[in-house]
């Protein structure tokens, strides 16, 4: 993996950055994700702990929305995808890839530099082979359908089994849907087309990318549900997680009261009106938070 990363860095040199053809160095990734409070991969990408990935499996889009816009992050959500398994939550760390429409003169330079660095072809597999366990492949293929198929069933299977990836989000297409449908890994895509990936060039690996109206940075926490996908900056993961605990307990208590059948909805939701009922809720919240958070590993 490290050899491939080094070779790709040699191919996508900063000298080409004016043409949007680049990958970040470790130092650049650290600079652009300087608010990351967690550990990092060797290439500098933020490594959100596995314990937070597990907690995120219980989040909804609404629970993430409760925090991010208020912190100024209003462009982290995208919907309108075809979803392979709507009942399966997508959770993982963003590994980003950016494509552009093919331009022959640029492609010739890229191909020559790739061969000089020992890479026969700088294609989708060059990126896929760098995935780490728990990564979500997040791909900007500018909505392309024909020729914009990032994977078929074989590479999808590789990501799921060999790379132990967490899923795929592509602003583009996939192919071999019949073969992929029986595989458990989550996938979010715009369309399906029988063509192979063609008439495009890779313009960035692990750089900020645009997925619809969302900006995604390498290492973001990717959370997808039956509505759409959120890309959570590492610096806000703890806050979203803690707030989600409170929301879950609030919902738990509210439904307990509704089950009793003696309250109007406005007596209980969203805030109890009666002081005694409000006190009961606050005590229940404190008790349940203590019970839940005792189970979390220390970060």
Features:
299 residues, alpha/beta, Glucose Oxidase, domain 1, ten-stranded mixed β-sheet, two-stranded antiparallel sheet, 11 helices, 21% strand, elongated
What do these coordinates show?
With 299 residues, this protein is of the alpha/beta class. It folds into two domains: 2-234, Glucose Oxidase, domain 1; 238-293, no CATH class. It is built from eleven helices and 14 strands. The chain has helices spanning 2-11, 26-32, 50-56, 61-65, 104-116, 124-128, 153-161, 177-181, 237-260, 265-268, 275-293, and strands spanning 22-23, 39-40, 46-47, 77-79, 82-83, 90-101, 135-140, 167-174, 187-192, 200-205, 209-211, 214-216, 221-224, 228-232. The strands form three sheets. Strands 1, 4, 5, 6, 7, 8, 9, 10, 13 and 14 form a ten-stranded mixed β-sheet that branches. The protein has a two-stranded antiparallel sheet with strand order 2-3. Strands 11-12 form a two-stranded antiparallel ribbon. Helix 8 links the parallel strand 8 (167-174) and strand 9 (187-192). Helix 1 (2-11) crosses helix 5 (104-116). It is elongated and about 75 Å long.
């Amino acid at each position: 993996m490290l050899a491939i990363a080094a070779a790709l860095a040699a191919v996508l040199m900063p000298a080409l950055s004016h043409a949007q053809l680049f990958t970040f160095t470790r130092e650049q990734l650290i600079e652009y994700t300087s608010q990351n409070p967690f550990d990092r991969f060797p290439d500098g990408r933020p490594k959100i702990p596995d314990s937070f990935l597990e907690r995120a499996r219980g989040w909804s889009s609404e629970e993430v929305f409760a925090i991010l816009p208020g912190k100024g992050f209003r462009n982290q959500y995208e919907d309108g995808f075809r979803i392979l398994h709507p009942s399966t939550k997508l959770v993982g760390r963003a590994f980003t890839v950016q494509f552009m429409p093919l331009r022959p003169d640029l492609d010739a330079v890229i191909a020559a530099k790739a061969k000089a660095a020992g890479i026969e072809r700088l294609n989708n597999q060059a990126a896929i082979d760098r995935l780490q366990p728990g990564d979500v492949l997040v791909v900007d293929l500018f909505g392309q359908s024909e020729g914009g198929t990032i994977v078929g069933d074989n590479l999808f299977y590789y990501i799921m089994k060999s790379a132990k990836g967490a899923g795929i989000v592509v602003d583009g297409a996939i192919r071999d849907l019949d073969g992929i449908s029986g595989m458990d890994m989550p996938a979010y895509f715009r369309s399906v087309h029988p063509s192979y990936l063609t008439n495009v060039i890779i313009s960035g690996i692990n750089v900020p990318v645009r997925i619809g109206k969302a900006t995604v940075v390498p290492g973001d926490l990717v959370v997808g549900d039956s509505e759409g996908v959120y890309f959570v900056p590492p610096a806000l993961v703890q806050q979203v997680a803690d707030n989600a605990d409170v929301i879950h307990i609030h919902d738990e208590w509210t439904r307990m009261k509704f089950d009793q059948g003696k309250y109007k909805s406005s007596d209980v939701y969203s805030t109890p009106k009666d002081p005694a009922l409000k006190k009961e809720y606050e005590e229940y919240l404190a008790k349940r938070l203590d019970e839940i958070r005792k189970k979390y590993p220390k970060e």
